[in-house]
């Protein structure tokens, strides 16, 4: 069990037992909630660690028995040793993954933003393709998708679409999608069969209720404006639209539904998201300097993936992954293959870093 120090395993079990004990004595609501959350996160790890430690003890006992004077017991022990060593390998791998540092937001619901980039109408069509890909992927995962806002393209697709996706571990799976997605294909309007290159940007951010951002009243300015609409006698008669400006950063968030109260809430949520995005980008930039080989920060300016239709090829540039199943991936049916590859690569890097720390 040299790959995982005994002290690290004992720390996990000790902390889990401490949290259990404190839960029984806690009286403050906030403390109970915090302890319950930590208990739920630690329980599967502690259980697997205990199973690993028990298997290690069993192996030591079997090895001692195999070295004993009773030949019959020694033979049985040798058979048990083979089974225990095989079980130990699998348990070590499971525990190593459970002990990896986790993004605090991995279990959060998300706000998904897709915007057409370079390429005009073709970029808007591609943005629509990406949205349908993510919607299908979400459906297969059992997640819920709700469109928050949409700006349709002139010939189809979207200039911009924002959706809320909720479910189990959405951010942990989807965070790798942030960045520039590039498409290479022959547009329907191309008469000479030339391949065009277009792009769309994707941002994946934790949902507002998962974001802890302190926004002081003195740091914001709230303006009301007249909503624009599709016509009708009540359009432009009330100042219901809301624009909130965060003065220290200059970040602006707006909402223009019919209710000023709803608009204020939505604009504040969007401001929280954008401030949190700024904070994450700053942290990611700092991490990138320290770890140049990381999968990627999720920065929207970073080209993360190319979808080449003539070759039915999808290439993720961060990990050098190439799959010749674009039709199934863009349909959303096989996006999990790309997500799994990115997650596996990230786990491998974290494992290497953890082993280096323990060395």
Summarize the structure.
With about 350 residues, the protein is an alpha+beta fold.
Question: Which structural traits does this protein have?
Answer:
eight-stranded mixed sheet, 359 residues, Alpha-Beta Plaits, 8 helices, alpha+beta, Double Stranded RNA Binding Domain, 48% helix, three-stranded antiparallel sheet, 3 domains
Structure overview:
This protein is of the alpha+beta class and 359 residues long. The protein has three domains: 6-99; 110-212 and 297-358, Alpha-Beta Plaits, CATH 3.30.70.1660; 217-279, 2-Layer Sandwich (Double Stranded RNA Binding Domain). Helix content is 48%, strand content 20%. The chain has eight helices and eleven strands. It has helices spanning 6-25, 29-66, 71-99, 120-141, 170-174, 260-290, 326-330, 335-358, and strands at 110-116, 144-152, 158-166, 179-185, 196-206, 220-225, 241-246, 251-255, 303-308, 313-316, 321-323. The strands form two sheets. An eight-stranded mixed sheet has the order 2-3-1-5-4-9-10-11, sandwiched between helices. α1 packs antiparallel against α2 and α2 packs antiparallel against α3. The longest helix is centred in the first third of the chain and has 38 residues, at 29-66. It is flat, with a radius of gyration of 26 Å.
Set out the fold topology:
Blueprint: H1 6-25, H2 29-66, H3 71-99, E1 110-116, H4 120-141, E2 144-152, E3 158-166, H5 170-174, E4 179-185, E5 196-206, E6 220-225, E7 241-246, E8 251-255, H6 260-290, E9 303-308, E10 313-316, E11 321-323, H7 326-330, H8 335-358
Parallel strand pairs: 4-9
Antiparallel strand pairs: 1-3, 1-5, 2-3, 4-5, 6-7, 7-8, 9-10, 10-11
Helix pairs in contact: 1-2, 2-3
